[in-house]
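Q: For a teaching handout, I want to show students what a protein-ligand complex looks like in token form. Below are the inputs, and the small molecule is adenosine-5'-triphosphate. Please produce the holo structure.
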Amino acid sequence: MSPEATSEEPAVTTEVESAVVVDRSSHSISRRRIPENVLKVLYRLHRSGYRAYLCGGSVRDLLMHRPPKDFDVATDAHPMEIRRLFRNSRIIGRRFRLVHVIFQDMIVEVSTFRREPERPSEENAELLITDDNTFGSPLQDARRRDFTMNALFYNIADFSVIDYVGGLEDMARKHVRVIGDPDIRFREDPVRMMRAIEFASRLGFQIEEGTYAAILRHKNEILKASPPRVSEEILELLRRGWSRGAIRLMVDSGLLEPLLPEVYRAIAGDRAPYFWKMLEVLDRTVQAGRKISDAVLFSVLVLPWVMEELEQEEQRRHGRMRIGDVLVFIRDLIQPICARMALPAGMRHQIELALETLWRLLEPPADRRSQFRFVYREPFSDALSLLELYALSSGKYIEVFRQWNAFAQRVKRAEGEAQPLPHRKRRRRR
Ligand code: ATP
Ligand code: MG
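A: Here is the structure, written as tokens, with adenosine-5'-triphosphate included.
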């Protein structure tokens, strides 16, 4: 290939340290797409003599014409200096490494450039990062980040994009590539393996070969990651609507099996084809803006396994389980997963109730009074959302869902129309 850039490639105009710097006319980031408060923070830092860069996911998303979730700022000002510049700010976290600048409708996170902590020198020393609070240069800050596309900076001083790690090239190739040695970076923080999968699914990228091979090598180390972080990553991909591709990749790369072996066994191969359809429907639903509770999202994930276990249990018992038994059965079943994933007790309880109510909705009681009782039970709407997803994807129980849905609508309408009852004196019994 000729050394000259093709028309699609960004024009390289200057080199600072080992960075590629793309000037304002050669990239697509426009200040109009950066919120005013973020610009205020960047400009004030810059005018006070500090470096002020937009960093992380926001630069990646702006370059891809996607709306960033949040706008983080990186600077060489130290936290106390940032704190002094912004009256509306607060130093956050252990060891004071971040500053939140608080506006009415948003918080802008400002962090001082950091470098990765020293690694232990012995061959097999434990690599897990426990403390990453050492200030550094912009280059070091870029290198401690996870993927090349997440390590780009937008410099407010001259509106250029600074790339120390080949992120622009990887983005042009649609590659998720770990920065540095993937064997080291995944062992330091195994959650990065899940993040690689999440970004690939979200952006429609491929995981670069070396990065993917390292996931295959280190998949079992995901069990060393902190459970709340892992469950947050899983919930996040369900919440944001890219679960189908991501969970498929988690199955294919072998990450799901150590994490959720029960779920894995229920969906592996082609055991529950409706599961993938269900995630597709779910992704579409949340992308359309419908809010779905975390309890429902997690229930969707365990649904094929729980349904299979319930069906088998009823076969063993030769008939429907008694009402109280269903809840106990589900509680015992999902308790180990919830504990492993460190789900909060409240959410665990909601999941149990939603799954139990779903199971009972599948065989609606014949009389109206019992149906009413269902609609007024707290987990009814969660269970109805689950039933909707289950019915639409499996093709089973569609009529049951229609009936419950129509019934619930009627009850809601009747409630809306109901006048407050006139206060009636009770007739005293003689
Ligand atoms: P999102 O759009 O989901 O917010 P993001 O890229 O902004 O994506 P965040 O989790 O908000 O991701 O993290 C912000 C930045 O911090 C990332 O872009 C990356 O540079 C860095 N980062 C986050 N998690 C890690 C990690 N586990 N290891 C190294 N760097 C990380
Ligand atoms: Mg972010």
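A: Two things your students might notice: The pocket of adenosine-5'-triphosphate (ligand 1) is lined by residues 56-57, 69-70, 72, 145-146, 150-151, 189, 191-192 (CB under 6 Å). DSSP finds 19 helices and 13 strands in the chain.
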